[in-house]
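Appendix B, record 7
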Amino acid sequence: MNKLTLATLLLATGLSGACISSYGQQDGNTPIDLKDGFKRIHAVEYKIYKDAPGKNCQPGDVVEFNILLKCDTATLGDSRQQPGGKPASMPVMETKNPTDWQLIIPYLSAGDSAVLRVPCDSIIATIPKDNKQPLPPWLKSGNFIMIYLDIVAVKDKNQVAAERSKMEEQEKVAAGRLVIEDDKTLKAYFTKNKLKPTKTASGLYYTIKKQGTGAAIKKNSKVSMNYTGKLLDGTPFDSNIDSNFHHVTPLEFNAGMGNVIKGWDEGVMLLKKGSKATFYIPSGLAYGSHGAGGIIGPNAILTFDVEVVKVEEPK
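Structure tokens (predicted):
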């Protein structure tokens, strides 16, 4: 039996599901009125306390929402606390889970707010009887998981497609500008340091300090390499030959197979066994706008001093 985790419990009730339900509409389920002003669809109880005018969510729409999940004194999740603070976003699709909070989405429109409650008894009923893991203290009979939901926006498939197309075009333009900026930065660096590297069509620059032997490395060849990576200002961020980085085993990977950043994949196949070289990698061929954490920030240009230790040709 796998350990009963919070994520498992939320998944069991649809609280961490990957899609928004249209179950209520598609199956023609009618909400049942309860005495305290709530309505119920299957095991999910809800009350809409802000009912904005507008068309309810439909299958194929994408809904943006803020959500807060609480039970007893525990906060189980809060979309407003996520990095960036942006609303969550999911497509409206079908679910057949009778305890899924997403069942009430088809009854909501943009601007609506609702409070939902899912009985812990319904969750407990899904837990196998032979489970020996202790339950979270809030998951007990008689408790409810309370869900506070604000629908920020509802977009149909045409709006979603148009926004995606616009974003892709903006990213393409931004990437093109960055390629030009990175190349100018690298050329200034080469002039300052009196370097004359070779440039490839992709924008990678390299210098071969020692020619290796044999044929050039082929795609899918297994290579073992020593390396030291630095930012363009000379700050080292990783190395397998510097004990300060606590790993001294050569890096092994299959060339040209996407196991490493693009600049490495291309640069390695310019080398042979025994080659020593330096790669000057623009950000688009490194870690791009996301960076890699630590000192490798977004759009960082990187340099690598590399040595090919071993090459095994693909079989």
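Remarks on this record: The chain has two domains: 6-155, 176-312. The chain is about 20% helix and 30% strand.
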